[in-house]
Amino acid sequence: MPDLNFTDRVVIVTGAGGSLGKAYALEFAKRGASVVVNDLGTTQDGSFARSLSANTTVAEIKFHGGKAVPNFDSVVYGHKIIEAAIEHFGRIDVVVNNAGIVLDKSFQNMSDNDWDLVYRTHVKGAYSVTKAAWFFFKKQGYGRIIFISSNSAIYGNFGQANYAAAKNALIGLSHTLAIEGNRYGIHSNVVIPTASSRLTEQLFLEESLRSLKAEYVVPLVIYLGHESCQETGKVLEAGAGWFGQIQAYRSKGMVLPAANAETIADNWTAITDMTSAKHFDNIQEVTADLLNNARKEGISGTKWELENEKKNEYMELLTVVAKALNQKIHGSPTSSFMFMLILMNGTDMHSFTQNKE
């Protein structure tokens, strides 16, 4: 494959004053991108400013012939970061939401401020930057968004209730942006890095840190940011030279027509058996599967069941409306209408899963 070049592309990397963020910024610049190096200049717990960190990254980029400008705004004021990109480079193509802090404490000892500050930085910050960039992405019909999450979001970690919750929120945000942005050429993905950084350097032995260099994560972020990458809605993991994908799977489960707490307990093994677990690509597929399973088991008397002789009439009418919705229209999303279609006939769900704005 030819080298992935970023000439004429503009990339924003938040939290790029050191460690992982700096490594991302340096590589994007090396490949021709104009980079906005954002870093508030705080320590890992969000305290006192060290504004020189962004300047240091920019100086290194320029020393090697690259193009970059520093930005010291908080990610909570994301519009200022986007404005800096437009002012200096005229456009924005890639956003890497990397900025973050940790305030690790057991849940019992965690204060409201500990929770709010971590959530504000990771979630509100990523939202704010991405929301400001979205206007330009949509206008130009192109954009790449990369959210940096954490294994804590997937597995939890002692003392990181705030951090794990915030990083998990980014996964849900990215999945939704992938759905809403796909028609506009806007792709959104999540990267879960395991690497030495100022947020994790206290967690690993020195020998392990040598295997967990930030540079080992960088190739994945670069690829996801390139125009040739058509992946969206993915959660990917990287660390120590290993790369992989993470997906959610659901057990086969079982239908319990007259379920109560006792029948749940009696059938717990079958309910949680992951032997025939299945991955679903979207919420529509999940809903259709639930309803199809109910029908197979003869569940009746529920609101969504139509009399057989009337179902075709309803579906003919809904098909006409669905075709109309597939035309270019404006207004609120039609998710509720789509959900009604699924309830009417889950097996026909695939024909109607086109959200419209």
TrEMBL record:
GO annotation terms (biological process): lipid metabolic process
Keyword match Oxidoreductase: yes
Single annotated GO MF: oxidoreductase activity
PROSITE patterns: ADH_SHORT
Entries under InterPro entries matching the protein: KR_dom, NAD(P)-bd_dom_sf, Peroxisomal_Beta-Oxidation, Sc_DH/Rdtase_CS, SDR_fam
SMART domains (UniProt xref): PKS_KR
Domain of life: Eukaryota
Pfam families for the chain: adh_short
Keywords on record: Oxidoreductase
Location of the Ketoreductase domain: 9-186
Family membership: Belongs to the short-chain dehydrogenases/reductases (SDR) family.
Protein name per the record: Bm5073, isoform b
